[in-house]
Amino acid sequence: MKRVLVTRQVFPEVVARLRERFEVDHNDADVPYTPAQMAERAAMADGILATVMDKVDEDVLAAAPGLKVVSNIAVGYNNVDVAAATKRGIRVTNTPGVLDDTTADLTWALLMAAARRIAEGDAFVRRGEWKIAFTMSAFLGADLHHATLGILGMGRIGQAIAKRATGFDMRVLYHNRSRLPEADEKRLNATWVERDCLLAESDFIVVMVPYSPAVHHFIKAEDFAKMKPTAVFVNTARGGIVDDAALIEALRAKRIAAAGVDVFEGEPALNPGYLGLSNVVLTPHIGSASRATRLRMCETAVTNLTAVLEGRTPPHLVNPQVLQGDKA
Ligand code: DGY
Fold first, then answer.
1. Of 80, 137, 212, 275, whose CB has the highest number of CB atoms within 10 Å?
2. Which domains does the chain possess?
3. Catalytic residue among 187, 252, 267, 296
4. Which residues of 291-312 are buried (b: 16+ CB within 10 A; e: fewer)?
């Protein structure tokens, strides 16, 4: 029987489905493995079901001579050394499509929370500081409706974010390496603009590009300097895409008005500069965190993994070059 390592706790029905076909080593305790533990566990595995926080690097791959697939339970896969896996003929797979709407919803939750100062208001009420029932100028925020939303990165999730702007009568600008087909631009009521134009004209700015070293600090101090002082910025993409220190400084100096952040450089460690700021809403990497979506992600990952271990091409292969190596 083939052996599968599940690096973190997943839903019982997912483990049961795996156990129908494989011997399963499930990290039910849900304490993330150290690099040494990961290599030790991977050593016996034919397949790994991993989360975005599990590093599957050259050391892990080298320790696992029988490994055929790393199936990430995520759309992102920057935790996996894909080049090293490809060299070894190991398939790497992900779960695109199933989390777009849930991540778009969270992006909107952060946009609204930051714009309307929800977390600040909540903390104020809980601290018992709400003494006068109504104050004309208390907790004034920004209107989303009829404002301009700028989306940097117009893939599936970016488009799901844009779609939601229609209900708020927003003008939508986007910047992407390639323009969407005209029909999609029309459907989403979105206009392609140069990056600098987007930064300067948008009231709300969302970044939604996949992480790779090429886009490390894709948003940095000079970008915040180009935004309106009233701008609200949201990052639900990946830690490292935004220079956290630069964002903190922009928020501290009121260079921009507010932000919502779900992903951080070096998470779960947090730049302590965030903690003293009232104009930022912080969430712990929960973009895809609805039960239905997390279950769909697990199911997609199991389908990918099963396909590889049964000798088929998985539906979501991120390193198709590996198939060339099979023929060589
Ligand atoms: C992903 O899928 O890449 C997310 O970050 C995990 O929720």
1. 80
2. 3-97+291-327 (3.40.50.720), 100-282 (3.40.50.720)
3. 267
4. eebbebbbbbbbbbbbbbbeee
